[in-house]
């Protein structure tokens, strides 16, 4: 008589937690719900396109330039998808740029290139996942603060990348890899890297919004202790999330190899800041518990378009950085105001 009651008691908290997570996910902007923030980002993107069309109509609106913008957005966009998951869980990953650099140079060594396309792709992904594993173990089981653990990984990965290359650029000689970056490889005018970005985005959206893994990620970010009491293995969930972030870095590293045709220890410079900024202006809370893949992707497109417009108009990089900083500040202020409004 007591055993069924005990089983029911064990299952009740988990069911309650999943029910609460379902209600929370339906209430929060986690999917393709065009809330005010998403519409605002679309409006900002439309304004930027109009500005680009007015200031540099021949260059900006050219098909080749639009393809370039989407291609450049694809690399940092894949990293941002992984970063969004980490931030939604209440964590942070400052090492994504360094992991991209390490994966790209490790995958372009002479020894690796001897294994051809498969060897380069496997090495890039394996290095990314390996670094994510180290981050996850240190944070989840070593109980290190994410900021410190990933900062240490940033320094270590950058140093190792520099040691591997000795400061030199490693040229890719595998034709099957380089061919992905040429115009003949485009599918209906769409670069292959953009298709990869689209696939990662769709998969990321489905995982975050339509799976138990996504609901657990939101639950851990909202209240880790409540999630633990509800039966969620918080440490294992965090480990998986940093593995996911590392996987995205490995994919991005391979995409960067295709785009640049080389591996350099300076690859992925400031990617961590761009990914965090894109996620924030897209509506992801730095404190965790809320986020949207769609918003993060729109944030990436906004920043990439700004960079392209500034480059076409020969404006200084310093002005570009100031503009990005202003957008981040404005996004955080809007975010805080919406939170206060929700509390009220």
Automatic annotation (TrEMBL):
Mention one GO molecular function. transmembrane transporter activity
Q: Where is this region: Disordered?
A: 1-24
Keyword RNA-binding in the entry? The reply is no
Broad class of the protein's primary localization: membrane
Record field: transmembrane: 36-56, 68-87, 94-111, 117-138, 145-165, 185-208, 239-262, 293-312
Keyword field contains Transmembrane = yes
User: Per UniProt, what is one Pfam family of this protein?
Assistant: BPD_transp_2
GO cellular component terms listed in the entry, alphabetical order: plasma membrane
Keywords noted in UniProt:
Cell membrane, Membrane, Transmembrane, Transmembrane helix
Report how it sits in the membrane.
Multi-pass membrane protein
Q: Tell me where on the tree of life, at the top rank, the source sits.
A: Bacteria
Give the matching InterPro entries: ABC_transp_permease
- UniProt subcellular location: Cell membrane
**Protein name as catalogued:** Ribose transport system permease protein
């Amino acid at each position: 008589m007591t055993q069924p009651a005990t089983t029911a008691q064990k299952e009740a908290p988990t069911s309650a937690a999943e029910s609460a997570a379902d209600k929370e996910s339906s209430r929060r902007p986690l999917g393709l719900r065009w809330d005010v923030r998403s519409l605002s980002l679309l409006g900002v993107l439309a304004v930027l396109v109009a500005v680009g069309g007015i200031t540099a109509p021949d260059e900006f609106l050219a098909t080749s330039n639009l393809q370039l913008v989407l291609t450049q957005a694809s690399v940092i966009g894949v990293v941002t998808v992984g970063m969004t998951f980490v931030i939604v869980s209440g964590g942070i990953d400052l090492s994504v740029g360094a992991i991209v650099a390490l994966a790209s140079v490790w995958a372009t060594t002479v020894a690796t290139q001897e294994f051809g396309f498969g060897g380069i792709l496997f090495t890039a992904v394996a290095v990314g996942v390996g670094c994510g594993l180290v981050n996850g173990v240190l944070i989840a089981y070593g109980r290190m603060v994410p900021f410190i653990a990933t900062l240490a990984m940033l320094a270590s990965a950058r140093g190792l990348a520099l040691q591997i290359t000795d400061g030199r650029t490693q040229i890719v000689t595998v034709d099957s890899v380089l061919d992905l970056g040429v115009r003949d490889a485009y599918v209906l005018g769409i670069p292959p890297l953009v298709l990869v970005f689209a696939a990662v985005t769709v998969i990321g959206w489905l995982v975050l919004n339509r799976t138990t893994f996504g609901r657990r990620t939101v639950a851990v970010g909202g209240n880790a202790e409540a999630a633990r009491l509800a039966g969620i293995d918080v440490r294992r969930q965090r480990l998986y999330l940093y593995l996911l972030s590392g996987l995205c870095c490995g994919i991005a590293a391979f995409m960067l190899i295709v785009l640049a045709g080389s591996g350099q220890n300076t690859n992925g410079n400031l990617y961590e800041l761009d990914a965090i900024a894109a996620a924030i202006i897209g509506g992801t809370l730095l404190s965790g518990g809320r986020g949207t893949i769609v918003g993060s992707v729109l944030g990436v497109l906004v920043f990439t378009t700004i960079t392209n417009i500034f480059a076409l108009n020969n404006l200084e990089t310093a002005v570009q950085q100031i503009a990005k900083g202003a957008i981040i500040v404005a996004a955080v202020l809007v975010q805080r105001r919406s939170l206060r409004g929700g509390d009220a």
